[in-house]
Design brief:
The protein has 298 residues and is an alpha/beta fold. It has helices at 24-36, 56-70, 85-98, 115-127, 139-142, 148-154, 170-181, 197-202, 217-228, 232-248, 256-264, 281-293; strands spanning 8-12, 41-44, 76-79, 102-106, 133-137, 160-165, 188-191, 207-210. Strands 1-2-3-4-5-6-7-8 form an 8-stranded parallel barrel, surrounded by 6 helices.
């Protein structure tokens, strides 16, 4: 079965809100800007999109709107993970029925499954649909770390095509790349951390699911493309130029800082849904300085 590729840069899109609901005007503008600035794919309703704070009715609307706005110009991946396997299956089936090109499925949070539980969870989700699954490992948010051996086991499932690796542990990234190579040559290792993408790609990885590209889509995707093409010097130059934002977009809980940054560029209101709140004055001042230093805000 032929699947669309998720190599390169995928923007983990913010969800613009108004006081009354979803800001579809700015959401559409943000999608157009992302495609214009050459990101390779879009991720909708991930953590950066505040998916836990969105109702089921809003989820359906956001998915329909995103797919309609993109019109097949780039692949669209929908976040469908959760800590209830049956619900993750239902969400994934709904995404497939809506026309999504793939789903991003996070490790179950709070209930802390074993490695065998993780394997069975992801396998069950993947076998319930026919579109690609991207695994998402982010132990800092979920409380469970999916180990390289488990990723390698899951790589043998045909429609599990990639992992978004956000453990923050480069040794684990390297071990995952090494283990997966022995199972499947076309399985993609994507960085879930902007500040590690340069290093991951140079270790043999394939791209980035990015928060930074919400506000610097061309610069971020240029850095990833340079690294993937073997232009290490150019990729390093862009990595270092963008590094202040890579770091400080996470100085407070994401997407609080990037929501503020996107509001400065006119792509949303600086509005989040509880339990998240606006970034602190200190954080906003730091983001202002970083956006100017990195050339994102002039």
């Amino acid at each position: 079965m032929a699947f669309k590729s998720f190599k390169g840069t995928g923007t983990a899109l913010i969800t613009p809100f108004t006081a009354d609901g979803i800001d579809y005007n700015n959401f559409g503008r943000l999608i157009e800007w992302q495609i214009e600035k050459k990101v390779e794919f879009l991720v909708v309703l991930g953590t950066t999109g505040e998916s836990p704070a969105v109702s089921e009715a809003e989820r359906d609307e956001i998915i329909r709107f995103s797919l309609s706005a993109v019109k097949g110009r780039v692949p669209v991946v929908i976040g469908t993970g959760g800590n209830n396997t049956n619900h993750a299956i239902e969400s994934s089936r709904n995404a497939e029925a809506s026309g999504a090109d793939g789903v991003l499925v996070v490790t179950p949070y709070y209930n802390k499954p074993s490695q065998e539980g993780l394997f069975r969870h992801f396998k069950a989700v993947a076998e319930s649909i026919n579109i690609p699954v991207i695994l998402y490992n982010v132990p800092g948010r979920t409380g469970v770390n999916m180990l390289p051996d488990t990723v390698a086991r899951l790589a043998s499932v045909d429609n599990i095509v990639a992992v978004k690796e956000a453990s923050g542990n480069q040794a684990q990234v390297d071990e995952t790349i090494r283990k997966v190579r022995g199972v499947r040559s076309d399985f993609l290792i994507l960085s879930g951390n902007d500040d590690q993408a340069f290093h991951l790609i140079n270790a043999g990885g394939h791209g980035l699911v990015s928060v930074l590209s919400n506000i610097a889509p061309l610069e971020t995707s240029d850095m990833v493309r340079a690294a993937l093409s073997g232009y290490v010097g150019r990729a390093r130059e862009l990595h270092m130029k963008l590094f202040p934002l890579m770091k400080n977009l996470f100085m407070e809980t994401s997407p609080m800082p990037v929501k503020y940054a996107a509001s400065k560029l006119g792509y949303c209101e600086n509005r989040l849904r509880l339990p998240l709140v606006e970034a602190s004055e200190k954080c906003m001042a730091q983001i202002d300085a970083d956006m100017k230093e990195c050339g994102v805000l002039r």
